[in-house]
Design goal:
It contains 16 helices and 38 strands. With 692 residues, it is of the alpha+beta class. The protein folds into five domains: 283 residues, P-loop containing nucleotide triphosphate hydrolases (Rossmann fold, 3-Layer(aba) Sandwich), CATH 3.40.50.300; 112 residues, Elongation Factor Tu (Ef-tu), domain 3 (Beta Barrel); 61 residues, 2-Layer Sandwich (Alpha-Beta Plaits), CATH 3.30.70.870; 109 residues, Ribosomal Protein S5, domain 2, CATH 3.30.230.10; 88 residues, Alpha-Beta Plaits (2-Layer Sandwich), CATH 3.30.70. The relative contact order is 0.09. It binds guanosine-5'-diphosphate and magnesium ion (MG).
Length: 692
């Protein structure tokens, strides 16, 4: 386990669903010698898809971190989901990985999810290499996909390989291997050993010219990257393979280029070079900037940071909580210092120390107990009782709170009831456990009605959670129809003052509260703060008023929905000294908030989804007509091979049951993906139906 930190790679393999992420991961685990049998997605026995839900649906929903070794380098693969309903899972993974392999299908090219993930990777400045997979399929086109990476993603792919052939027999010139443009040689992968044996040969004559042309492009790019290389290049000198790789590595780490590979995971072609690329081109933890956070004590608040080194104080991030036979396992990335078994690091969110009972390295088909994990590495921890995703674990003597992981707001909710009232307590416990594992899921029980609402990112998300309740926890639930989670904000900025002046049971109650409300844009939630000059309000009164404002705001707005996108500032709070001064202040707040909300005018917000439908030409008309009927706004529509891609934005309220509809409109041939995009003002018709 004690790899030098520069010999560690924390990577994600990201892809649009069905591009071949699971298959590629499976091959990687096999070649790196950890997995003793090769799994196949279509047989439902792969290693990363161990959650039964995933085998059932054939999609990877839950991240798992798996460790393997290649060329004396420890590679932690953080599995990322391919389904867009679970984008938050991808975001969460991107936070803790240092580099990514982006898998594309050479047939479908750049798809919606690749685009989303690519943009997220840009945001987190994650260096990438690309793998153009499925070169064995009919219609596979390396160059078209390569160009799409440039055009649709604004990427800077650099081909370091080209395929030898495309498609499968009996197609003439079927895919048989790949050409390595750095070493200028051909690689063939023996199908009899599941690609384990790689033969290196000369570039076939019929591919010589093409290879020369692509190598030329490669050299042009590399020469532009580095002055010294440019000099050698211009003088006609020899650019060694090592120098090419070195230059590409620096540029990849800087996010300037993405070395691009190709092959067919299914047919065992071209996977080992991707593993080489992970070692050669993707960053080690020391290639990434120091991790930033804040001192958890508000009195000492200030920026803190930790270098990726074992001799720094401990700073680690819990990025995933997964149900496990021994209780919940927390996946933790250690950014600095050393995490030891039986240690009690501080969880600054709770200001509590938590026991690290066991540390596990998770491999494809085994897990190994370890005593310590050093900076840069990833480990599974058993024993943390209260930690949730996004929590920091740190040295109690040198506390730091790493930036928490931000998850999108839930957009859909559904009422659930236990089949038998005896299960009520059990249901609550299970929901709490599920919420701990999945931060994009929430459960809330209304005290008055006793009704439990679960909320999440989309219909499929809730469906998966309901299945898990039944299958994993054996709780039978009755579910109601899912509903859109509306929000409300205000239209105008308003300043408002409210007074209380009354006598109650002989006590004088006099207080006044002055507030300002301001609508905010973007994805802001509600912020409540004091904007009074220091000393203007008595400290105790100020605290009391702020706490009461929080409570009022949390109770929702005038339309009955949670408030969002607004700022509420306390400008003044005064009261007459008396025994019931506190009561007077609370009463004034309770009066002021509804009044200011009314004056500022409520605005209903509804979730807008981003939708991409991919359909064969034959069904285009029907699909478009249906989208129009759902009042979707089509933002883009284009051809990809034989298929048409329609991108649109639609209100979630119009999209219920879409999966069934798409299936029946296209005889099951069209596919789609949908994810929350934003909240936007709802039209009057929606407001009417919601209030009516
Ligand atoms: P994921 O959704 O990205 O994890 O994709 P999977 O690895 O589950 O693959 C989706 C489907 O594509 C499965 O039926 C695979 O067998 C198939 N597949 C994966 N890689 C290839 C490939 O290189 N060539 C072909 N023809 N099929 C592939
Ligand atoms: Mg998969």
């Amino acid at each position: 386990m004690d790899h030098d930190i520069t010999r560690i790679r924390n990577i994600g393999i990201v892809a649009h669903i069905d591009a071949g992420k699971t298959t590629t991961t499976e091959r990687i685990l096999y070649y790196s010698g950890v997995s003793h049998r090769m799994g196949n997605v279509d047989d439902g026995n792969t290693t990363t898809d161990f959650d039964p839900d995933e085998s059932k649906r054939g999609i990877t929903i839950y991240s798992a971190a798996i460790t393997c070794e290649w060329k004396n380098t420890l590679i932690n693969i953080i599995d990322t989901p391919g389904h867009v309903d679970f984008t938050a899972e991808v975001e969460r993974s991107l936070r803790v990985l240092d580099g990514a392999v982006v898998v594309f299908s050479a047939v479908e090219g750049v798809e919606a999810q690749s685009e989303t993930v690519w943009r997220q990777a840009d945001r987190y400045q994650v260096p990438r290499v690309c793998f153009i997979n499925k070169m064995d399929r009919i219609g596979a086109d390396f160059e078209r996909t390569f160009d799409e990476i440039k055009q649709r993603l604004n990427g800077q792919p650099v081909a370091v390989q080209i395929p030898i052939g495309a498609g499968s027999p009996p197609t003439p010139d079927a895919l048989s291997g790949v050409i390595d443009l750095i070493e200028m040689r051909a690689l063939y992968f023996d199908p009899d050993t599941q690609g384990l044996d790689v033969q290196v040969k000369d570039i076939p004559e019929s591919y010589r010219q093409q290879a020369e042309a692509w190598r030329e492009k490669l050299l042009d790019v590399v020469a532009m990257l580095d002055d010294d290389v440019m000099e050698v290049f211009l003088e006609g000198g020899v650019l060694s393979a090592d120098l090419l790789r070195q230059t590409l590595r620096v540029a990849t780490l800087a996010g300037v280029v993405q070395p691009t590979f190709c092959g067919s995971s299914l047919d065992y072609i071209g996977v080992q070079p991707v593993l080489d690329a992970v070692v050669d081109f993707l960053p080690s933890p020391t290639d990434r900037p120091a991790i930033a956070g804040e001192h958890p004590n508000p009195k000492k608040a200030g920026r803190e940071s930790r270098q990726p080194a074992a001799d720094e104080p401990l700073a680690a991030l819990v990025f995933k909580v997964q149900a496990d036979q021994h209780g919940d396992m927390c996946f933790v990335r250690v950014y600095s210092g050393v995490l030891k078994r039986n240690a009690k690091p501080l969880n600054p969110r709770l200001n509590k120390r938590e026991l690290v009972h066991q540390l596990w390295r998770i491999q494809a088909d085994s897990r190994i107990k370890v005593d310590e994990v050093r900076a840069g590495n990833i480990v599974g921890v058993i024993g943390l009782k209260e930690a949730v995703t996004g929590d920091t674990l740190c040295d109690p003597g040198k506390p730091i709170r790493l930036e928490p992981i931000v998850f999108p707001e839930t957009v859909i909710a559904m009422a659930v009831e236990p089949e038998s009232s005896a299960d009520r307590k059990k249901l609550a416990d299970c929901l709490a456990r599920l919420a701990r594992q999945d931060p994009t899921f929430q459960a809330h029980t209304n005290e008055e009605t006793g009704q439990t609402l679960i909320s999440g990112m989309g219909e499929l998300h809730l469906e998966v959670l309901r299945d898990r309740l039944q299958r994993d926890f054996h709780v039978d639930v009755r579910v109601h129809k899912p509903r859109v989670s509306y929000r409300e904000t205000v239209r105008n900025a308003v300043t408002h003052e409210s007074r209380i002046d009354r006598t109650f049971a002989g006590n004088v109650q006099q207080a006044s509260i002055k507030l300002r409300i301001t609508p905010l844009s973007g994805n802001a939630l509600v912020s409540v703060k004091s904007a009074a000059k220091p000393g203007k309000i008595v400290a105790e009164i100020e605290q009391l008023a702020l706490a009461a404002l929080h409570d009022e705001v949390n109770a929702g707005g005038r339309l009955g929905f949670p408030l969002a996108r607004l700022e509420l500032s306390l400008l003044d709070a005064q009261c007459k000294q008396s025994e019931s001064a506190e009561i007077a202040v609370l009463a004034a707040v309770a009066k002021a908030v509804p009044e200011i909300l009314e004056r500022a005018e409520s605005v209903l917000l509804q979730p807008i989804m981003r939708l991409e439908v991919v359909t064969p030409e034959d069904f285009l008309g029907g699909i478009q007509a249906d989208l129009n009927a759902r009042r979707a706004i089509i933002t883009k529509s284009f051809r990809r091979g034989d298929l048409t891609v329609i991108e649109s934005e639609a209100a979630l309220g119009q999209m219920f049951g879409y999966s069934t509809q798409v299936r029946s409109l296209s005889q099951g041939r069209a596919s789609y993906s949908m994810q929350p995009l934003k909240y936007a003002e709802a039209p009057p018709s929606v407001l009417e139906s919601v209030l009516g």
